Predict the 3D structure of the following.
Amino acid sequence: IMKMQKAVEDEQKPLTTTALANNTTNVKAAFVVLVRNSELDDLRSAMRQMEDRFNHRYNYPWVFLNDADFSEEFKAKTKGIASGNTFYGKVDDTMWGYPEWIDQDKASDTRENMKEVIYGDSESYRHMCRFQSGFFFRHPLMLEYDYYWRVEPGVEFSCSVDYDPFALMQEKDMKYGWTISLKEYEETIPTLWNTAKEFMQKYPQHIVPKDDPGSLLKWVSDDDGETYNLCHFWSNFEIGSIKWLNSPAYLDFFNYLDQNGGFFYERWGDAPVHSIAAALLLKKDEVHWFYDHGYFHNPFRQCPREPAWVADEKCLCNPEDSFDEHWYSCTPKWLELTGKKRTDYLVTTRS
Ligand code: GDP
Ligand code: MN
């Protein structure tokens, strides 16, 4: 009963933040971009928008990671856009490669048999998904930060962000933030949920009990945990806690999945992996929908439905194009599960 009362009280708190519209914050945070040299132009476009919409007032640093060496041109043309410091890291084979328990012939057969599935035949995509699932947050360049904001080449940020999302996360002790949700292709993750269920059996100490009012199990399962409903947060946009990802709970989860081999014998994406982790390990109040962020990653868009925002030049997007009410989106389910309205996610600043 105490717990439930706490949940009710939390829900009644308005979503305000003391983070003002200038760089008075001291959150230890950075943008993180895994990227190839060949994606430089698309990256510059995304960076330009991030800087214009948000970061020119905050000057957070940018961390670029790559499994190859960054070119001098890449460094010069990203440093030139960034208002904060830039760091360039190489990802070595401890984070991008086959662990010794993986049967590489079996992995290769899988790729042969998955040609019909999106990225099903790609080896590098699998290394990428495993890296994003289990390693970017412990790359040496990332360890000094508390929060990260993942950015990808080619994405668009179409609304001005006049508060500091990192400060909001820190102030509310939130661990994971997202903009777009949807359903995963089942062919990429046939045994992911069963593996997650084994993890729940083996590590009950990490799991939010399903009768806890904060439980997010229903976000990923429509039948009380029996099967996965394929809902996930689209991980190309994430604002998250580095400490959470480095916690024993998350690392035990990742290691358990990694031992199973599904990153290579299937084609597990980092989006369902992060999302299932959030659903099992975090409570409702620790996960935030950045409803008020305009965002586009091909082919889906998030555009806030606030009538005045387009006219007020806060956003350059059309709410009618927003994916959040689409039948394939899981966001309506999120709102139902959390008992929230869109407007509950509008962040207002106060001094
Ligand atoms: P999608 O969003 O699922 O279609 O996948 P992307 O191709 O956008 O890849 C996701 C992220 O990982 C992007 O930021 C890419 O730039 C990056 N990425 C994907 N594959 C590689 C790779 O082989 N090397 C590097 N350095 N980055 C990669
Ligand atoms: Mn992408």
About this structure: The CA atoms of residues 188 and 267 lie 5 Å apart. The pocket of manganese (II) ion (ligand 2) is lined by residues 152, 236, 297 (CB under 6 Å). The chain is about 35% helix and 15% strand.
